[in-house]
């Protein structure tokens, strides 16, 4: 299989060829690239296989995974295809590399967070957990997708209280959507705009290290 996406993989420095490792797949925001997520997730590189995925569509100086009709309104056909291709990519990488399939995480920001949450809802417990930073779940995903249980999926959501792109109310709505669906939900807000503060980074790094050892 030829993967739909270019990607950068970082393997733990001292790998045992007979072992599999917890793995984080990262998804960047619109107009960004995999290097931004590599820097954000760098404190986790010693403990995880890191697979940083690049969107397959050009957008300005960077990339995107799908296009928008308007803010918060994805082009449905492109969004559907991205979700399907990302799920296939996760299986492709899990076969190619020493990935522990019981400890797979998706970490995404903005557009990547939207896809991370959608993948949790479509893959269910085939993912151990997700970290979704400043995103939301599209209404058509909630109402029209075939959704899996996320009861056993660990979910870390965060949102900037000053986010001008997705207002903080969207963060609270997203947390309220997941709250009855999984007992393993963490939701934090930060005095930040549409970005990831140092405190936010420290919190999700600590959360991932704790969750993977449970």
Automatic annotation (TrEMBL):
GO molecular-function term, one example from the UniProt record: hydrolase activity
SUPFAM superfamilies hit by this protein: alpha/beta-Hydrolases
Keyword Hydrolase among UniProt keywords: yes
Keyword terms, alphabetized: Hydrolase
Residue ranges constituting the Phospholipase/carboxylesterase/thioesterase domain according to the UniProt record: 22-203
Keyword presence, Transmembrane helix: no
Family note: Belongs to the AB hydrolase superfamily. AB hydrolase 2 family.
UniProt protein name: Phospholipase/carboxylesterase
């Amino acid at each position: 299989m030829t993967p739909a996406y270019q990607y950068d993989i970082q393997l733990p420095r001292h790998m045992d060829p007979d072992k599999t490792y917890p793995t984080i797949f990262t998804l960047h925001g619109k107009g960004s690239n995999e290097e931004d997520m590599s820097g954000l997730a760098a404190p986790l590189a010693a403990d995880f296989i890191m697979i940083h995925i690049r969107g397959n569509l050009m957008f300005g100086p960077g990339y995107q995974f799908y296009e928008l009709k308007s803010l918060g309104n994805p082009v449905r056909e492109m969004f559907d295809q991205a979700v399907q291709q990302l799920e296939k990519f996760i299986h492709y990488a899990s076969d190619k590399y020493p990935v522990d399939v019981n400890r797979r995480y998706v970490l995404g920001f903005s557009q990547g967070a939207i896809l991370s949450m959608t993948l949790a809802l479509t893959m269910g417990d085939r993912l151990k957990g997700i970290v979704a930073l400043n995103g939301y779940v599209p209404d058509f995903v909630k109402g029209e997708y075939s959704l899996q249980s996320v009861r056993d999926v660990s979910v870390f959501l965060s949102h900037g209280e000053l986010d001008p792109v997705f207002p903080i109310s969207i963060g609270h709505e997203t947390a309220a959507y997941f709250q009855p669906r999984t007992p393993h939900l963490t939701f934090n807000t930060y005095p930040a705009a549409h970005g990831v503060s140092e405190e936010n980074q420290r919190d999700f790094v600590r959360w991932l290290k704790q969750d993977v050892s449970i």
